[in-house]
Amino acid sequence: MSTGAEHGPRRIPPAGALGLLLALTLVSGCTVGPNYRAQLGETPPAWLGATSALGPPAGAAAELVMARWWTVFQDPQLSALIERAIPSNLELKLAAARVRQARASRGIAAAGAGPSANATGGLTRSRPAGSVASGKRPSPATQYQTGFDAAWEFDLAGGVRRGIEAADADLLATEAAQQGARITLVAEVARTYVELRLLQQRLEIARQNLTSQQHTAELTRKRLAGGLVNGLDVANAQAQVAATAAQIPVLEASAQQTVYGLSLLLGLAPGALLPELAPAGALPVAPLAVPLGVPSELLRRRPDIRQAEAQIQAATARIGVATADLYPRFTLSGAVGYQAAHAGNLINPLSQFWSLGPSVTWNVFASGRIRSNIELQKALEEESAIAYRQTVLTALQEVENALVAATKEQEHSQTLTAATEAYRRAARLAATLYAEGQTDFLNVLLAQRALQAAEDASAQSRAALSTHLIALYKALGGGWDTGAAAPGDSAPAAP
Question: Rounded distance, CA 450 to CA 454, Å?
């Protein structure tokens, strides 16, 4: 507060205050608390599931593939959906808002390192109490005052600097979380799109089989009318037609609901993408060549690992913030202004006052609160370190799971493709022999059921292979460019 009485101006501050200011400035580089040490996550030298088909050498081209991995599917509609989802997805907008919050919090923490100043001004109308003995009542008096006061707390123990360090780490963690949200979004759009195309392909398979089975049922009715077969063949043929027809509404409902899910990922109303995605499209299939790199690169590419490491850094810095409370705090404060009983005399050298001096506060007794807080921050730092190790191991497991799933699914898909061709030939042969009266209808029924099951399983296997590759790219941290700004966030990064 600016207080003082009228007296003559003094132009030179006390030498003792200047000396203390110099001394505090010289020792203000001390910082208490432990320094953060970069984490060295333990990773194996190579991937267990890597094969000759997986993991071409890394390089600039590999980085580009990882940044936009969905282009390897060579599906323009999939690429268009992902490009539209990145700026419009609501979860990604929330992540961008959290980054801006972290930047603002960092600015608040950094502001604590500098001085603060307040401009003051006021008019006071007062009357003191009178004397009972004299019976006189003093006249009211008016006092005008203006000026400003300032204070600067010297960060001797480094608590403010540790707070800024923690805020920087929080910002890094929030930015990594934003990048992780983008990776998850891209993978989810691709996975949902593959699911939609699979449902549409299964619908097409069911409709084709329904047409073939209806033709066979008509043939059995004609043979029944000619006395060549009994009613059992007709009943079996009609049951087969009904069973296949019953699958179609279920698949249609699932396909429409999947379109609704894609619309939500793009931040749109449920039916917004129906005109665009209702026509059936080909199932996207990607080559198995994935730029795996080496496991140690995962520590750089995976945003969740970098987020976990930044959280350790923030927790380590907060130990220093808590430790700084054990030390005294030195503040240099001062005020300058004018004070007069008449407004005309306010701006007058004789009405000027000023004050300057240091102060110290030291919490010498806090019932163990400060030391308990230090122990709390140490435990939080230990928790963050454990969480980091768990995140690294989980990331390695996700990559290995996706590797073995993609490799084995490719073998599974190739076998199913060969089986489907064999079942297709058997179904055609059974239908021909039945039409010629050389076999009974049971063989036709079994062949058609086997063909439908094989075609459906083959389509699901191809979709599963694409889904496993999507999971592999996601597990490797693909889906964002390490040299580009985060989506939906154009503000510069904090130092």
Answer: 6
Domain ranges of the chain: 1-30+334-361, 31-124+148-327+372-475
Tens of pLDDT, residues 200-218? 999 999 999 899 889 888 8
Contact 286, 469 (CB under 8 A): yes
- Residue 249 Ramachandran class (φ > 0 left, ψ -120 to 50 alpha, else beta): alpha
Nearest CA to 495 out of 129, 171, 34 is that of: 171
H/E run at residue 356 = strand 352-361
Report how far residue 174's alpha carbon sits from residue 98's, in angstroms, rounded to the nearest whole number. Answer: 7
pLDDT per residue as tens digits for the range 327-372:
988 888 888 888 888 777 778 888 888 888 888 888 888 778 999 9
Q: What is the Cα Rg of the chain in Å?
A: 38
* Residue 486's pLDDT band (cuts 50, 70, 90): very low
What single letter denotes the amino acid at residue 70? Answer: W
- Model pLDDT, residue 382: 95
Quickly list H helices, 226-328. Answer: 231-265, 274-277, 298-301, 303-323
Kindly state the DSSP code that residue 6 receives in the 8-state scheme: -
Question: How many angstroms separate the CA atoms of 312 and 383, rounded?
Answer: 8
Note whether 373 and 381 are within 8 A (CB).
Answer: no
Element (H, E) at 360: strand 352-361
Name the 3-class secondary structure at 410.
helix
Cβ atoms of residues 84 and 277 within 8 Å: no
- pTM, whole model, 2 decimals? 0.83
Query: Over the range 11-21, which residues count as b (16 or more CB within 10 Å of their CB) and which as e?
Result: eeeeeeeeebb
Residues shown for the chain: 495
Q: What is the rounded average pLDDT of the residues 227-234?
A: 80
CATH code, residues 31-124+148-327+372-475: 1.20.1600.10
